């Protein structure tokens, strides 16, 4: 197994990637710009998201908010609504705050160095390196999942890429491999190479320009590298949603901080350790919210939906409950619920689970 110190100065590596890249790269809109705002937008959207899935979101954001000032001035609900379906909503909230920070503290111009970019909220090492190199040609190497994989395989690095301490080893190596004359092109190339040639499963080793130098290929370790420890098993949460309705309205509330889906809208919620909510529990839950159940209109069956997040699994049941009368003002204040017409719910940012339920139930 090689160590980083024994892999320094491998000129073939950058050369091979820089020859490979123009022949294989995908034509993507953010590759035609040096505008740090557009580059930042694309990087935020593409974190933990495939290009195919992220592309329409990028196009929506860049056309709705062509400048950082436009994004900063937009209402948060609207920014989150455009994010719907992409997951990891804290990214959208951070993105909005960062835009406001760039406007308030930097006069609407992105900082131009890696060190300054790191001071922006929600901008970590990867994003700062991407903007600094793509927009300003700074020689700082990006490290994302694709880069970890390529380096681990080509140089035979066995450090666990899920362990924070390993990052430094890979960063030192990547910073030594990046050529001063083409940092942007090199960063783009290595990420693209990982995305379409040296893929997690079935990499195209047969037609790979690095085949002769690749440690993993030469030692039959392509499937073992990179080493990545398993994430903890996701915990299961049982959400019992009380979908309270009266006349043509439905009651929803904006979720608070310290849990998943902050800032998104869902229904009144009772969370339990088990999958069932008895009729009595349902009645008590409605009464606790200040509502009066209509005995003639509790609809069955409840719908069950599953939503898998990175670290938890949500099993949701929707209990559609018709109320005798609208919830009184005091109950709305205490519960945070608001009555919306079904049309109004369209414009609210919602977890995809809630959006799917509404679509299935009432469209
Ligand atoms: S030979 Fe295979 S494992 Fe090695 S860099 Fe090329 S595609 Fe990746």
Automatic annotation (TrEMBL):
Family assignment from sequence similarity: Belongs to the Nth/MutY family.
Record lineage: Bacteria, Pseudomonadati, Bacteroidota, Cytophagia, Cytophagales
Keywords of the record: 4Fe-4S, DNA damage, DNA repair, Glycosidase, Hydrolase, Iron, Iron-sulfur, Metal-binding
EC number(s) on file: 3.2.2.31
The protein's name in its UniProt record: Adenine DNA glycosylase
Cofactor note: Binds 1 [4Fe-4S] cluster.
Domain of life: Bacteria
Pfam families for the chain: HHH, HhH-GPD, NUDIX_4
Matches recorded under Gene3D superfamilies: Helix-hairpin-Helix base-excision DNA repair enzymes (C-terminal), Hypothetical protein, domain 2, Nucleoside Triphosphate Pyrophosphohydrolase
Cofactor(s) recorded in Swiss-Prot or TrEMBL: [4Fe-4S] cluster
Domain HhH-GPD: 45-196
GO biological process: base-excision repair; mismatch repair
InterPro entries for the chain: A/G_AdeGlyc_MutY (IPR005760), DNA_glycosylase (IPR011257), HhH-GPD_domain (IPR003265), HhH_base_excis_C (IPR023170), HhH_motif (IPR000445), MIG/MutY (IPR044298), MutY_C (IPR029119), NUDIX_hydrolase-like_dom_sf (IPR015797)
PANTHER family xrefs: ADENINE DNA GLYCOSYLASE (PTHR42944)
Species the sequence originates in: Hymenobacter telluris
Function: Adenine glycosylase active on G-A mispairs. MutY also corrects error-prone DNA synthesis past GO lesions which are due to the oxidatively damaged form of guanine: 7,8-dihydro-8-oxoguanine (8-oxo-dGTP).
Catalytic activity as recorded in UniProt: Hydrolyzes free adenine bases from 7,8-dihydro-8-oxoguanine:adenine mismatched double-stranded DNA, leaving an apurinic site
Gene Ontology molecular function, alphabetical: 4 iron, 4 sulfur cluster binding; 8-oxo-7,8-dihydroguanine DNA N-glycosylase activity; adenine/guanine mispair binding; metal ion binding; oxidized purine DNA binding; purine-specific mismatch base pair DNA N-glycosylase activity
Annotated NCBIfam families: mutY
